[in-house]
Every structure is written in structure tokens, then in C-alpha cells.
């Protein structure tokens, strides 16, 4: 645990980490603006969050500012943003005037549960000395699809779309889009499982070898 904390505090004051902190602070701002039906401003805040997400990785790699803390802050900022989006969308569409949209509002809970499990699971892994896995290709695709679809819903979705006077997604179309994002999210989630399982098995193996080594050392001393 001490070694983990030492790694987290090493080179923590970097521009990428600052951008990740800003993204975390933008989460409650987005939620407040969205719930006050300031959808244009909430999209702007979400766009700023996305830009900071894009640039913090570029800066970290280009200027060699990759840090252990940054590897945690970046996904945490992503998780908090996605959890917040899932919550406000669920609340909004659960009260929709469209019966179809209202009936399928529960689908946003899939994103909420998945992200909550990953946040709690990541915290447990860090506490037990395991390292949360970096985003794999399925995770990146799932995240990109999530933001793209959710922003499109904020633009053209029923009840909240800022361009709904020009064009509005029919309820079945919006549901299909959200289902596609949910499937990609679940695929992304499953892609982390093998890496976590491998770490758990490696840790068990290391403990078993250490115990065996200690036991053989004790036997040798008794023989002497």
C-alpha cells in the first residue's frame, strides 16, 4: 500500500493531471446545467471535457508527463462523467411525455451500473496492490460511441434536443442508438476481465511461491 501511494505522488503536478482535475470539476457543473435545462451550455461543458480528455493524453505522451496518478485520474474523470450523464438522462427520460421513451429509460442504468462497478473495482484493486488495466481498443471504441450517441441525443433527442424543432429522433431510433452504445459498453467491460484475472492469479502464484520458499527455508534450518 505504501509503495502504491509513493507511486501515485511521484510526478503528480503535471499539466495532464491538472486537466484531469478540471474534467472532474466540470462533472457537477454539467449536471447542474443539464437539470436546469440549460442544454446548450451543458453540451459546451461536455465538449470542453472531451477536449481536455483528448489533450491530456497527447501532452502526457509528447512531453513525457505520464504518471501513476494520471493513469488513475484520467479513467476516474471518464467514469464520473459517464455516470453523471447516465443519471441525468435516466431521470429526464423516466419522466418523458413519450411512453416508449419512458418505458425504456431503464437502459441508461446499464451505463450507471457498469461505471459504478469499475470505479469501486478499481479502488479495491489499488487497495489490494493490483493495477487497474489501461483502456483497451474495445474500451476506447465504447467510450467514443457513448459520447457520440449521447451528444447526438442532446442535439436531436425527444424532450431535450436543442435542435428538436428542426429534427427529432423518433423514439425507436433513439432507443436503438442507446442499445448499440450499451452493447459496446458491456463488450468494453468484458475486455478488462482477463487482465484483472491474470493479475489475481499471478499474485496468488507469487504468494504460494513465497510461502513454499519460506517453508523450505525453515526445514533447512531445522536440519542444521
Quick recap of the structure?
The protein is mainly alpha-helical. Helices cover 79% and strands 0% of the residues.
Which terms summarize this structure?
224 residues; mainly alpha; Four Helix Bundle (Hemerythrin (Met), subunit A); 79% helix
SSE order and pairing:
Layout: H1 2-9, H2 15-35, H3 39-62, H4 68-94, H5 99-103, H6 108-127, H7 137-156, H8 171-223
Helix pairs in contact: 2-3, 2-4, 4-6, 6-8, 7-8
Question: How many helices?
Answer: 8
Summarize the main sheet: none
N- to C-terminal distance: 37 Å
Alpha carbon gyration radius: 22 Å
Strand content: under 5%
How helical, in percent, are the residues?
over 70%
CATH class: Mainly Alpha
Count of individual beta strands = 0
Order of helices and strands: HHHHHHHH
Please give the domain count.
1
Could you please describe the fold and organization of this structure?
Helix 2 (15-35) runs parallel beside helix 4 (68-94). The protein is mainly α. The chain contains 8 helices and no strands. The chain has one domain: CDP-alcohol phosphotransferase transmembrane (TM) domain (Four Helix Bundle (Hemerythrin (Met), subunit A)). The chain is globular, with a radius of gyration of 22 Å. It is 79% helix and 0% strand. The longest helix has 53 residues, at 171-223.
Amino acid at each position: 500500500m505504501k509503495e502504491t501511494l509513493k507511486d501515485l505522488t511521484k510526478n503528480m503536478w503535471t499539466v495532464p493531471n491538472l486537466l484531469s482535475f478540471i474534467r472532474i470539476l466540470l462533472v457537477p457543473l454539467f449536471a447542474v446545467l443539464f437539470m436546469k435545462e440549460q442544454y446548450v451550455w451543458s453540451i459546451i461543458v461536455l465538449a470542453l471535457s472531451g477536449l481536455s480528455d483528448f489533450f491530456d493524453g497527447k501532452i502526457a505522451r509528447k512531453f513525457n508527463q505520464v504518471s501513476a496518478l494520471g493513469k488513475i485520474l484520467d479513467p476516474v474523470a471518464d467514469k464520473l462523467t459517464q455516470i453523471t450523464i447516465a443519471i441525468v438522462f435516466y431521470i429526464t427520460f423516466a419522466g418523458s411525455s413519450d411512453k416508449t421513451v419512458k418505458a425504456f429509460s431503464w437502459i441508461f442504468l446499464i451505463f450507471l451500473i457498469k461505471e459504478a462497478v469499475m470505479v469501486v473495482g478499481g479502488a479495491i484493486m489499488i487497495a489490494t496492490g493490483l493495477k487497474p488495466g489501461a483502456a483497451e481498443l474495445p474500451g476506447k471504441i465504447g467510450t467514443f460511441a457513448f459520447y457520440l450517441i449521447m451528444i447526438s441525443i442532446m442535439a436531436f433527442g425527444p424532450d431535450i434536443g436543442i435542435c428538436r424543432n428542426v429534427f427529432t429522433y423518433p423514439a425507436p431510433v433513439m432507443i436503438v442508438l442507446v442499445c448499440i452504445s450499451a452493447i459496446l459498453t458491456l463488450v468494453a467491460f468484458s475486455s478488462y476481465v482477463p487482465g484483472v484475472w491474470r493479475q489475481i492469479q499471478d499474485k496468488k502464484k507469487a504468494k504460494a511461491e513465497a510461502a513454499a520458499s519460506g517453508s523450505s527455508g525453515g526445514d533447512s534450518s531445522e536440519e542444521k
